[in-house]
Every structure is written in structure tokens, then in C-alpha cells.
Design a protein that fits this description.
The chain is α/β, with parallel strands linked by helices. It has helices at residues 4-9, 42-45, 54-66, 77-90, 101-117, 139-143, 148-151, 169-175, 199-212, 282-297, 300-321, 345-354, 376-392, and strands at 21-25, 28-31, 36-39, 93-98, 126-130, 161-164, 180-186, 188-189, 195-196, 215-219, 243-246, 257-262, 326-332, 335-340, 356-357, 359-361, 365-368. The model has no long low-confidence stretch (mean pLDDT 96).
Amino acid sequence: MISEEHTKYLIGNYAPPTIEIVRGLGTKLWDSDGKEYLDFASGIAVTNIGHGHPAWIDRVTEQSTVLAHASNLYSIPEQVRLAKRLVERIGPGKVLFCNSGAEANEAMIKLSRLVAHQSEEPERLEILVAENAFHGRTMGALSATASSKYRKGFEPLLPGFRFATFNQAESFRETVTELSRAIMLESIQGEGGIHTASDEFLRDIENLCAEKKLLLLLDEVQAGIGRTGEFLGFQASGIRPSAVAMAKGLGGGFPLGALWVSEEFAETFQPGSHGTTFGGSPLACSAANAVLDVLETENLIEKTREQGSYFQSKLEKLKTRFPSQVSEIRGRGLMLAIAMQNDPSPAIKAMREEGLLVVAAAGRALRLLPPLTVSRKELDEALVIIERVLSKS
């Protein structure tokens, strides 16, 4: 039951909640009435190693007794260790830490601007971004988000962004001008409805960036940290970006964002050019190191490929059975969507009442984002609920 004090004291920028979550363990959540749910939302792709993982709890608990915060005025061992591990997974370069995906994308936009101003062509400031993309709610990240749903009421936004069609390299080529500096993309559009960039598209964009001397900026905030069956969503294509933004699953529930920058641009930020009070704290980085430990020791990335393939094949069969309700199954790994023929809200509500939590997205999509630790049995339980709801629609 939702407390009356919720609406009394909290600003109403979110839709009124229907349940009050008080506890989580593994793939399960419980509300204040004691009802159990299968969590196929994962805090919107955040709790990739599940709720209350013992290794994560032990590491965060231990670090909290030693040092929670010191600021970036000092070197922080946990931060250095985490940066090294990210560089080893992504490629030669350096890492900047922050607190969220929007901040990571904001830093990526600032990187592009700094590169321009430090070059012999400082007028080349424009960033090309995809229609239907979502990069965050801060003013810079919002300016890189085309949808009027998010932009309305906040104009004027930051100038210097041009929009092209996702998965159509020729559209980006036609949109490039003499003022273009970078292309910014999600490897899978999450909020936009789980639309996957094809490997061919990403490689074509990489070639376009090389030809036009553009930075290739990748937003891996939602598709990163193992969710797609790769550490980062773009890695299946084999491309080499200029910078990558990460967050969500990186901290396993503790707020943390990161920006990896390739060697070519790793010295762009200089002392005083960017900063954050809380980003990369000892506590946040210990949480992220624990997440990486679990990914490695439990082989979760490979398991995600296997589980995702199984889950997607079963969902495709449901699509065949219920063509009047389901138009398409989209995604990769355990970042999947059921694209509905009509408004998905009734189905989402019905699934919640049946004990399955899922997330809506643009384009009448119903997102399925279970923890990467999900068992085959739990996937089957979710499929039973989805089938039951579709059969009643």
C-alpha cells in the first residue's frame, strides 16, 4: 500500500506508484503488503547481478567501514583499480568517473566540444545523433534527445545537434556538414523501444567517422555491463569508438557513471576542465569492482548470451501464437522487448498483478530486463505469466 505521505512530500514528476517495494533478493522483490514479484525490470537495467548478491554486500560493507568518500582531490585505490579493469575490457585509453548515465553522456558531449575548441577548426561543434534516441535528462543530454516528449517545456536547449535516422548510415552521411564534429549513438536504443543497431550500421558509421574526421561517441548506459551478452553492446560489431558512456549496471545498484576515452583523446580534459564531487568515490567503485568480480567468477556474460537466446526463442513462439497482440520481439541478450500492437499499459498492469515486473518503452514496447543471474526456471515462470496475460487480452 502506498503511503499518503508519498504524494504529500514527493514532487510529482513520476506517475503515481502502484506498489511500494521494501525488499529484494536475487531476482525477487517484495512489496509492503508481502506480495512477491519476479523483477524483470532490474531497476531499469541496474541490478545486473541481482538484489543482495553476497559478494556485492560483503565488498560494499567492508569498504563502508574503511572509507566512503574522500573526493577527487586524492588518488583512490578502488577507483584506479576499476579504471584499469574497464580499460582492459574496452581498449587503450583512460576513464573519468561520475554519478549517472546522464552525467556520463554530458561529459561525452563536453569532450566533443573540448576537442573542437582545441583543434584548428573550433567552429566544427555539431554532434549528429539518432532520432528516437534517449541520452538523459540534463540539458546537454536532453539536447541530444530528439523526442518532444522529453524536450517540451525546457526549450531553448543546447544548440549544435542534428538528427538522422537510426540504422541508416546513408541518413547520417547526408546529415553531416562542414560543422560536424561527432556522431553519438546507442548500440541498443533502450528508452526508445529496444531497437538494436546492426553490426553493419555501426561499422558503416565507424567508416564515416574516419572519412569525415568525426568522433564516434557511444552511449552504453543501458546496454552495457554484460546485458547484451557482451560487456558493452557495441563490442559484437568489432568497432573502435572514440568514447563510451556507462552507468546503470556498473554499480550494481550504487550510483556510478563512467566515461572511457580512447588514447587519441585521453588528454583532452585537463585539470580544472571538468569535475565532480561524488563521482568515483571509494564506496561507489568498490560496488562496481564487486559487480565485475561477479560477472567474471559466475561467467555471467556468456550465460546471458545463452539465457537471452533461450528467452528470445520462447518469446518468438508467443508472438506466433498471439499475432493480434504482439507485433515483434526485439533486442539482444537479456535486453529484450515485446512490441505490442496496442498500448502495452494494460498488459504491464496485468503482469504486475500476476507477479511479474516489466518496464514500458517508446513504440508500444514492453521491456524485459531481468538480472543476468536469472535462472532458466525463473525465465519459464515469467513466460507462463506473459502467456497467461496475452491469452486474456
